[in-house]
Amino acid sequence: MKKTIFEFNDYKNYLRERINDSPSKGRGAKLKMSEYLNCHTSFISQVLNGDPNFSFEQAVKLNTFFDHTKDEARYFILLLHSERAGTNELKSFLKEEMKEILDKRSDLKNRLDIKNSLKKVDQQVYYSSWHYTCIHMLIAIPDFQSPLAIAKHLNLNREKVMEVLNFLESTGLAKKIGARYEIGVTKIHLTKDSPQIQRHHVNWRMKAVNAIDENIPSNLHYSSIISMSAADVPHIKEVLIKSIEECRKIIRDSKEEQVQSICIDFFGV
Q1: Where would I find the DUF4423 domain in this sequence (predicted)?
Q2: What is the pLDDT of residues 114-133, one digit of tens each?
Q3: Which domain holds residue 98?
Q4: Which residues fall within 8 angstroms of residue 45, CB to CB, at 6 or more apart?
């Protein structure tokens, strides 16, 4: 998986990697850059391997050249500004600006552009038990859109299933069509500062423990305790978040056939 610009603290290292990863690579990539910036390839090499820096005007053009997003463009300019900064005070200020972008990216709601559709009072119910989230996802599957099918699949009594379905319907998370239930609002995500986030994590970690006990071969469980440098911690976090983004791209176009749970933990001990 290729690194993103947010994993670099030096814009020259970032550019060198982008050049090496480009289809034309090496001299070919530098030639295209030089033509776009209207400068000689030798100047590109001097910047990448020596003391000179690009101008801010050139940096803006490079944002277009590399098709940076708004956040990527802002971060790239800050990296360049930090390299050119003449005082420690300015460097510290720019470092805080970059940290703000990284903190924003670490919040998955911002990364995945998810809108929270539940009122806070309804969130307390929805995240109180795994039953609500699980049944909500099950009704996306044609084979599990009736109370009886859900009850049988989850080994729950019909009264409990109906309690959940009535709640989902009342909040617009489900819609009833005849005797069947279908998905209503589908995009729901708790922010990391939500008071419900702890309950939600615990609900599905408990289900994960049950799944481990069942020892089903098709399931995947991975646990590892490691020692590593503090500088590499944000890099690992970025890789994991990118993996979640890639999974969501696959899930978005995937046919609803079964419900799966994804639980990822990466924390200091």
Answers
A1: 115-268
A2: 444 577 788 889 999 999 99
A3: 5-106
A4: 30
